[in-house]
Design a protein that fits this description.
homodimer, about 400 residues, globular
Chain lengths: ~400, ~400
């Protein structure tokens, strides 16, 4: 039988607008990860996967994995490589580490990810955005910049399903409330509905608080085979139960549907099937709320509600604590920010803590958790399901 | 039991100084890969890993994996991500795909890699090289540029072990001879010893033919679980038997030894142990001959000969056809060129063909093959062992 794989530690650098360099923040995140579980040290780690998307352009550094290994005192012998799937680089790294451990190629792997994105001049980030979609087809038209693209998605969803600007704003209000006590997040102040609704427009219908910020930060987790995990932690074991990563198109002209994300459905279907669970079994989820509209569509395409009912789902409190499935319990991208390679790892840390009963804002009795990480202009979707039980 | 994993197809774009863009060359390589084994189509492929190091700076394109998927008509559901470990990005992709298939997370995965590096102005490549080592410590001193770094290694090896410039030149003469009939390689003309010895100096003791060229190109392979592989090819199955990827330092100041590559020994040791073979069992090897001195040190640290005897190993023809272990039978980096993400995949294709008995220059009866891929300033080493037999 293939081996079971567990999450045994996780930590983050402080996230926000930082004066630190990318390597500083990787070091902070690695340190926080080891401090989260002092039973595991850099000597136990036999592999390192680093997740980062804009390191070349924004940090002038490629061949990043050996550099991070050196700064963390890790000497990998099974894997030492970087993975990039833009906004979903972090969750990609977790899937790849999961494969290596499950297959018996590695035993204990750190997945560390993050970015230094904020620069006063903003040019490198601006250029990088245009290079993040198909640059000959979409980038050349300026479609690489996320707010206009997601504004079109929001407009279409409103037109087809009657979703309202207030429903969008409610996602932001919830996630800012969830991020309130998160010690590492970018924003830690709540906002009320009035503030969200009257904020300055970015690209209508998206207003300031409908958009996640430009954030610097890193995060790291350690995955281990079950046997090692038992040695290396006394906390409840958190198993990876299923994964899916799907793409059906890249350029926007080939997108089958802007408001039903088919690739998300394919990725989720595979992850649910692997895990042997249904959407109704999920106790807590971290989804990719890069914009408020994203979270609403994710409720639908992850199967938490019917198509077109995402607006109602937030309005009726079904994604809040005490609701059907609390979503983005640590504040999500809207509160924590979104240093691309870090996001999927931050999501994993929050799910690990939720399933171990030690989250800042705890979902009582959570046993099955899900993360969803989106990349490109809705081009690729990554879903991972975690459980307190093996199967 | 974990599943066995086989190489079932491989193909390359033309390699050289190309007017094609990176996406064109990925398409050429993908097409060549499917043509190599018409039984497998893009519909059979459930995962795609793309290996590329300089895509951001030299091709202005990140989030490359979904773009390549779209251009090849592949709709991944298990994995769709890019991997970067500079010069060893390609072999890293193979290890990661191997893990996913062995673990049962994916069944049929394409690993496609390559670069568009040559530009008349050369600035993006120049900058990228400085960003490929630790840019604060080594890049800032200009140590990112490979010829000076490897010239120091060569000088030290000559001083310690009496290695001669003629022995270096013989590596180049052999590999140019091996690349003679390779229909995709960058250089396809032989050179004689006289030509190699009298070529213009690059950084003494390295002369023109001691250095691999700047090359554009892509390559792709398809890996499948044994069960699918049996359905998808009538050729002999080529199994991945063992892998290792090690790094002990990144910046040059922390390198334990410039002429004994400890991380290579660690990676090779793990790969040999996984595969249950010894250096003497290897019938054919593709090693990372970015410079002639590299191949000489690789003979030693892969265990083909004793430390310090690499010069003699080439001089006595032990790495040539008919010798102890033919090395770089398709011409290696010195003939084929080195579009970083493509190299590890080219090596895998050549080993697959050798073990299936259909290489351009065939090692008779080869059953066990090895690839070695180096990255950074000798910072990280990747070793993969393939076999005609499962174990």
């Amino acid at each position: 039988m293939e081996r079971n794989v567990c999450l045994i530690a996780g930590g983050m650098s402080e996230w926000g607008v930082r004066e630190a360099s990318l390597r500083d923040m990787f070091q902070e995140a690695g340190k926080a990860c080891f401090e989260d579980n002092p039973a595991v040290t850099n000597k136990d780690v036999d592999g390192l996967i680093v997740a980062s998307a804009y390191t070349e352009r924004c940090s002038f550094q490629t061949h990043l994995a050996p550099l991070v290994a050196e700064y963390l005192g890790i000497k990998p012998k099974s894997i030492c490589a970087r993975v990039e799937l833009l906004c979903a680089s972090g969750s990609s790294g977790i899937i790849l580490a999961y494969g290596l451990i499950k297959a018996g190629i590695a035993d204990v792997v750190m997945v560390a990810g993050g970015e230094k994105l904020y620069m006063p001049q903003k040019w490198e980030v601006f250029y990088s955005e245009l290079a993040s979609v198909d640059h000959d087809w979409d980038g050349a038209q300026g479609l690489g910049l996320p707010p206009p693209a997601f504004a079109m998605v929001a407009k279409q969803h409103m037109k087809l399903y009657g979703t309202t600007e207030e429903q969008l704003a409610l996602v932001s209000v919830k996630n800012r409330r969830n991020g309130l006590n998160n010690p590492r997040g970018h924003f830690r102040q709540p906002i009320d509905l009035q503030t969200a609704m009257t904020a300055r427009p970015i690209v209508p219908p998206l207003k300031l608080y409908d958009c996640c910020p430009v954030t610097d930060g890193c995060a790291a987790v350690i995955l281990a085979c079950e046997e090692k995990a038992k040695d290396l932690t006394d906390r409840p074991l958190v198993y990876i139960r299923g994964t899916g990563q799907a793409t059906l198109n890249n350029m926007s002209a080939n997108m089958p549907n802007w408001t039903t994300w088919e690739a998300l459905k394919v990725a989720a279907q595979k992850a649910y099937a692997d895990a042997g669970v249904k959407p109704g079994d999920i106790d807590v989820a971290q989804t990719h709320d890069c914009f408020t509209i994203s979270e609403i569509i994710e409720y639908e395409d992850l199967g938490f509600c019917e198509k077109g009912e995402g607006g109602l789902f937030i309005q009726e409190g079904k994604s809040d604590f005490g609701g059907q499935v609390p979503v983005n319990t640590d504040g999500g991208l809207l509160s924590c920010g979104h240093p691309f390679g870090g996001t999927g790892i931050r999501q994993a840390i929050e799910i690990m803590k939720q399933l171990q009963g030690r989250a800042v804002r705890q979902v009582e009795g959570a046993r099955i958790g899900l993360t969803h990480n989106l990349s490109g202009f809705i081009a690729a979707h990554t879903v991972i399901i975690y459980g307190r039980d093996k199967d």
